[in-house]
């Protein structure tokens, strides 16, 4: 079992603290989603002019960066947006080469009032263009089960249209189950052949909240995490189990020192 956490969970930590905590809690990697409040980490010295120093720190700690979690959307409304995302993918692809990172996470995005069929056409076009960069740098784009693309049937349609070894699924095991009530077995049945990476979180229903649920430490909510883990193990999944602790968006949840240690212990107990 390979464990990682995303930096969404520790928005105030610097590189040294991130590495120290990961090593102390027996993680294998760190998935970067922002750094010190900046989501576009490729604009920062640690990932541009001083990138080799950052690479060396991770190598010395025997830690991987299995994925860079971008802000790229596959569905776009304007040419300007599309070209901005092309530039972002190239920036992250360069970082993937520096860190020997295999994956860049991308979102589907909100389609608004547009018909699903029209949205499929736009996403298909954009993915084919994005993949030209991915192939050039030998990196895979991970399409996350998120926002208007949580339903496995919607995801499957895109993968049937775009068949590429550089295009795979990031299964956030929380979102389909919690937001649309999708059975995890159905998610795997439809998307399993494309799933290369997973995000983990837990929650319970809480009426009167903006999301309708409350995030919590793993095992304290009602997402069937143990069953999902057993299924993944049975199916031969050998990718990362990455904690996406949304501290940056939800400051009321536990501090990263607590959540990261608890996740490592929880997952290792599942593994036994």
From TrEMBL:
It comes from Perspicuibacillus lycopersici. Pfam families: AP_endonuc_2 (PF01261). It comes from the Bacteria. InterPro entries: IolE/XylAMocC-like, Xyl_isomerase-like_sf, Xyl_isomerase-like_TIM-brl. Keywords: Isomerase. Gene3D superfamilies: Divalent-metal-dependent TIM barrel enzymes. This is Sugar phosphate isomerase/epimerase. One of its GO terms (molecular function) is isomerase activity. Residues 20-255 form the Xylose isomerase-like TIM barrel domain.
């Amino acid at each position: 079992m390979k464990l990682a956490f995303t930096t969404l969970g520790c928005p105030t930590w610097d590189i040294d603290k991130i590495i120290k905590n990961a090593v102390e809690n027996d993680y294998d990697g760190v998935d970067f989603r922002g750094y010190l409040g900046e989501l576009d980490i490729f604009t920062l010295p640690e990932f541009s002019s001083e990138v080799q120093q950052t690479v060396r720190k991770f190598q010395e700690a025997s830690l991987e960066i299995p994925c860079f979690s971008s802000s790229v959307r596959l569905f776009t409304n304007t040419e300007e947006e599309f070209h901005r995302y092309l530039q972002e993918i190239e920036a992250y692809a360069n970082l993937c080469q520096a860190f020997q990172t295999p994956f860049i996470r991308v979102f589907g995005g909100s389609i608004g009032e547009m018909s699903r069929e029209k949205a499929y056409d736009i996403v298909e076009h954009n993915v084919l263009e994005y993949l030209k960069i991915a192939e050039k740098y030998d990196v895979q784009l991970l399409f996350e089960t998120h926002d208007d693309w949580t339903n496995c049937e919607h995801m499957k349609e895109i993968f049937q249209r775009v068949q590429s070894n550089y295009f795979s699924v990031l299964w956030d095991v929380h979102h389909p189950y919690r937001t649309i009530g999708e059975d995890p077995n159905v998610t795997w049945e439809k998307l399993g052949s494309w799933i290369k990476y997973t995000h983990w979180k837990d929650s319970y229903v809480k009426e009167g909240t903006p999301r309708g649920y409350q995030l919590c430490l793993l095992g304290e909510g009602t997402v069937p995490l143990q069953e999902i883990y057993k299924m993944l193990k049975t199916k031969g999944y050998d990718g990362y189990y990455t904690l996406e602790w949304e501290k940056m968006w939800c400051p009321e949840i536990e501090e990263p020192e607590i959540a990261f240690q608890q996740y490592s212990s929880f997952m290792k107990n599942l593994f036994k």
